[in-house]
Amino acid sequence: MFKYKVLNDQVLSLRFKGNNPHLIPRLGLKDHGPFKPIEHSKLSIRFIYPRKGDLKNVVKRFIQVLMKGERKFLGFEKIYRTKPLFLEEIEVDFQEMLNPSKSRKLKDILMNDVSLSPRPIYIALVPPCPRWFKWSPYYILKAYLLQHNIMSQMIKFDTLTYRPLDEVAFNVSNAIFAKAGGEPWRLWSRIPSFSGTSDKVIIVGTGISRIPKEPGFKEYDRYAGFTILYSDEGQLLYIKTFVTEYDKQAVTKKLNEAIIEAIDSFNVYGELDLIIHYAGKELSHQEEEEIVKTISQIKEMRMLRINYVVLRIIRNPLYRVFSETEHGYPPMGMYVRIGERLLLTYTIGYLQGMRPMGVPIPLLLSIRLSNLSINDVDLEALVASVCEFARLNWRGTNLFNREPVTVKYSRLLAYLASSLKEVGLNTGALPRKKPWFL
User: What are the sequence ranges of the domains in the chain?
Assistant: First the structure.
């Protein structure tokens, strides 16, 4: 008979302006405003789209929703406490979106925008293309703008045509606000020390993705690596990506260098609890040894005592839990220990009268490595690092998000970095402090 435990509802709350808590992201933003304002008092937004059908009028309608609001969305200024300035739109031929460096109109406006402080954020309307198609306007235009240190938000034509504009406006606004340097929300409760002896905890999402040459192919020509660093209260501290040729040893070395850079950017002395999240394939013995070696290097360089846990997050376990109450829904934050190093965890579930859409699927947490005895590890701290970080998804304002951003963002980072390199972007120059990938 397995015994279950449930995280306190309070730790699943989020923190907004004035350190006010709320469980629901949208309502927290409406009632209190974002946790941290953007770095500058100004926020400029510029639309770019091709000459196609009624797109011009669709854009004008969407701008009105962003400015004045509609139904669920009250307007950008009321939600994010920042008044956006909408600059003159850029309307170009479709071919210019496929080869933006050849567009005189775009180039002239871009050169002026580069001189502005802060630089505007572009919203680009692009046609729907398969994700694997590297030469789509989505990747080409995003790479071109990033070359000029311009953040962008891509929206597919059909998103503005078939989805409610207030829903789209909320999600787009949240991503733009974060890219401008603001923080929509943080965690209400800090992730506790799993060792019980350290005052400092950091969470790292890291891993490697093999990128296939074509969809369905078993041949791979690229590795994409990613490391994303968070504080114990959910502050995004550091992002690093790289793309390299298919060579296992070389990519492992690069990944370890990225982990060292990330942790070295965190100013801490004395003792540190380090939680590493990863998803995907099992670590090989060689990769495990390399992680241990990397942590040892950091300890020596920084003269730190580091307590570490490497946690593999398995997205589709065979196990399920059903509740005899609440229509069978397990509560959010419930976890069951099903083995010495295995924890079945629900990041989605019944929460204060709110039920998720569909039947929740748990995550399986596997403690792969630690320099502490398993009996000395506070398992609830590890569960909290997963459940609470599932609440930090700034790509939208939904209540329920299944995966922690440490692994959800990592997969997105890997695919985007690989695709942007394919169209000529130097991925080593990608921003390290702002979530350009949202």
Answer: 37-182, 186-428
pLDDT in tens, 373-431: 999 999 999 999 999 999 999 998 888 888 999 988 887 888 888 888 888 888 888 88
CATH class of 37-182: alpha beta
Encode pLDDT of 29-43 as tens digits. Answer: 999 999 999 987 789
Q: What is the 3-state secondary structure (H, E, C) of the chain?
A: CCCEEECCHHHHCEEEHHHEEECCHHHHHHHHCCCECCCCCCEEEEEEEECCCCHHHHHHHHHHHHHHCECCECCHHHHHCCCEEECCCEEECHHHHHCHHHCHHHHHHHHHHHCCCCCCEEEEEECCCCCCCCCCHHHHHHHHHHHCCCCEEEEEHHHHHHCCHHHHHHHHHHHHHHHCCCECCEECCCCCCCCCCCCCEEEEEEEEEEEECCCCCCCEEEEEEEEEEEECCCCEEEEEEEEEECCHHHHHHHHHHHHHHHHHCCCCCCEEEEEEEECCCCCCHHHHHHHHHHHHHHHHHHCCEEEEEEEEEECCCCCCCCCCCHHHCCECCEEEEEECCEEEECCCCEECCECCCCCCCCEEEEEEEECCCHHHCCHHHHHHHHHHHCCCCCCCCCCCCCCCHHHHHHHHHHHHHHHHHHCCCCHHHCCCCCCCCC
Domain 186-428: assigned CATH number: 3.30.420.10
